[in-house]
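Quick one, tokens below:
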């Protein structure tokens, strides 16, 4: 089960969609300029001015969108490097064997280990591509094996990992 998205593929898809949208807008605005020019019997110079005006607007919009996308990517990379630095400073639990758990259970255990062995059940749902019922079933299995416990916390549940049961 893949729960992480590759940032470079997301960035490429975003760039490709921005280029396609820009091309579509250029075609639409050029078509509109030609329609107005033909219906009003405008000169060739007038048609050229309308097309250039449309192209300049598209170019400026594309540059602005690319800069916003680049700034967002830089912010994501800096927050990722900060979280990786924080993760490296935590004690490494390399002696834990997670092969006896299925992929959804492994995700839950790793998520809990990265979050000081506790989190809200809703956080697990938000940070994975699993449904609420899938998370609930996996948590119930792990709870029956004594790996974790769930405690009612307001409207939701708090999940607590028992590290001693993992070794």
């Amino acid at each position: 089960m893949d729960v992480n998205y590759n940032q470079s593929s997301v960035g490429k898809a975003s760039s490709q969609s921005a280029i396609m949208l820009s091309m579509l807008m250029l075609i639409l605005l050029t078509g509109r300029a030609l329609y107005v020019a033909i219906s009003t019997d405008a000169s060739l110079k007038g048609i050229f001015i309308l097309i250039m005006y449309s192209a300049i607007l598209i170019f400026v919009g594309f540059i602005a969108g690319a800069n916003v996308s680049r700034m967002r990517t830089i912010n994501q990379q800096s927050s990722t490097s900060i979280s990786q630095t924080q993760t490296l400073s935590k004690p490494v639990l390399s002696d834990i064997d997670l092969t006896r758990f299925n992929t959804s259970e492994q995700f839950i255990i790793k998520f809990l280990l990265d979050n000081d062995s506790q989190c809200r059940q809703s956080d697990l749902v938000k940070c994975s591509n699993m449904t609420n019922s899938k998370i609930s079933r996996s948590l119930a299995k792990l709870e029956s094996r004594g790996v974790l416990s769930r405690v009612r916390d307001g409207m939701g549940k708090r999940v607590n990992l028992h590290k001693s049961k993992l070794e």
